[in-house]
Amino acid sequence: MSANVQNETRRRGDAETRRREGEVSEERETDSPERISFSSRRVSASPRPRVSFSETERAWLLLFGMSAIFIVSALWQPSDEAGLILCPFRALTGLRCPGCGMTHAFCAIAHGHLWRAIEYNPFSPLLFLAGVLAWANAAATLLRLDFIRRGFARLRLTKEMTWCLLALVMVWWVVRLVKGI
Questions:
Q1: What is the DSSP letter of 19?
Q2: What is the mean pLDDT of the chain?
Q3: Higher pLDDT pick, 168 / 21
Q4: Angle 76-88-105 (CA atoms, 0-180°, nearest 5)?
Q5: Is the full-model pTM beyond 0.90?
Q6: Please, are residues 117 and 109 in contact by the beta-carbon 8 Å criterion?
Q7: 25: part of which helix (H) or strand (E)?
Q8: Is 155:133 a contact under the CB 8 Å cutoff?
Q9: Which of the two residues, 71 and 14, has the higher pLDDT score?
Q10: How far is Cα 173 from Cα 102, in angstroms, rounded to an integer?
């Protein structure tokens, strides 16, 4: 018997077993009318289809998304006056999150004001650089420049580096909240 025939037989057997279990469950429920049970309703247990993008699709999404961020950063000059609050955490709590000031900082970097960007958020130059590198990696993926992509693969963060950066951001957040920066 070939593997395909065996798989088909096994699948039919599984379906038959599930059908029989459903009938037995329904018979049990009809025996006692005072007992209310919802087990006779069989809900399909098939998992939701997982959306997965190909490497090229991810590269296009990243390239367009980062390009939009860079274009807005270059064209927009937000004022320093209190006004529109873009941060949902700050809008709800009135407290600044670790990323507050990042929009102003990206705009400052795009206009060549690095020190001002650091004043808005000290992590902004690192995040901006990470965005530029991600954009370049996406472009290299679409242009099939494997030698460049291999170089970017060497720049990936290790698990330890990621935890250290996360801890640093959390310390920054506590300092920001305590000092009211």
A1: H
A2: 77
A3: 168
A4: 35
A5: no
A6: yes
A7: helix 3-31
A8: yes
A9: 71
A10: 13
For the chain, what is the largest distance between any 2 Cα atoms, rounded to a whole number of angstroms? 78
12-33 mean pLDDT = 50
Cα→Cα distances 143→27, 68, 156, Å: 63, 20, 20
* Better-scored residue on pLDDT, 60 or 1: 60
Q: What is the pLDDT of residues 148-170, one digit of tens each?
A: 888 888 888 788 988 998 898 88
Quote the CA–CA distance of 35 and 31 in Å, as a whole number: 9
Identify residue 74 by its one-letter amino acid code: A
The dihedral over CA atoms of 172, 175, 176, 181, expressed in degrees to the nearest 10, equals: -120
Q: Do the Cβ atoms of 155 and 134 come closer than 8 Å?
A: no
The pair of three-digit structure tokens given for residue 35, joined into one six-digit string: 């007992």
The three-class DSSP label of residue 81 is: coil
- Helices (H) and strands (E) in the chain — how many of each? 8, 0
pLDDT at 138: 92
